[in-house]
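Dear U.,

Please find below the material for section 3 of the report. The protein was modelled together with magnesium ion; I have listed the sequence and SMILES used, followed by the predicted complex structure.
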Amino acid sequence: MSEPTLQIEGVHAGYRGARVLHDIDIRVPAGTVTALLGPNGAGKTTLLRVAAGLLRPSAGVLRLDGAEVTRWSASRRARHGVCLIPEGRGVFGGLTVRENLRMMLPARGPRGRVDDVLDVFPDLRNRLGQTAGSMSGGQQQMLALARAWLTGPKVVLLDEVSMGLAPLVVDEIFVALDALRSTGVSLLLVEQYVDRALAMADTVHLLDRGRIAFGGPASEIDRDGLLASYLGATTTP
Ligand SMILES: Nc1ncnc2c1ncn2[C@@H]1O[C@H](COP(=O)(O)OP(=O)(O)O)[C@@H](O)[C@H]1O
Ligand SMILES: [Mg+2]
């Protein structure tokens, strides 16, 4: 069996004086979607930061395609295909759409082509000269996904990309995520809309107060039990 794209093994992490993550084990197999669910403050963003290399774990190991990357910097991980789409809009509001896209093209190595990416995000094609900050939240999030795509990623870490967007826009985002997955990219998806996450994910991990409370195939999740025990009323749109 091939190595998972991303492996998180026995990871502990936190901030000065605050232990947040305890003994986290997650495998993200190639070409699959892993959803990370959990209430506010559970540590989801912190875990994505550890995966991206922005926060060094106090214990544990991270692997990319089987190779240990625990001590790699965020930029080195990014060059090797780890792409974080942070909370909020991961775009430069003062730059045009075209500039936002062009700056993601790597100097060398595998790269998606801008034209191919614009086929997946046709709305952006009409907005190449528009400043990103003047677009709607959904359009900015599409631009963030397009930027991620251009880096030719192996694994994309997505932190609540649907936050604050209208249901129809969230639909579009998930269509784009599905297209990204179909190119063989792995996704680690932090998502507040449980039903959407369950519909898209192969595997689900539930994070509760910094620990994995459940991990398993999305098809085996007791959705109602999950919502009742951990997640409150996070069900729409
Ligand atoms: N930069 C930071 N410094 C100190 N504590 C932080 C920092 N960022 C997050 N935390 C704390 O870590 C815990 C987990 O936060 P976070 O990872 O953002 O959770 P989630 O994304 O699941 O809502 C919270 O208790 C939060 O207050
Ligand atoms: Mg968060």
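For the text of the report, you could mention the following: Strands lie at 6-15, 18-28, 33-37, 59-64, 67-68, 82-85, 155-159, 186-190, 203-208, 211-217.

Regards,
Y.
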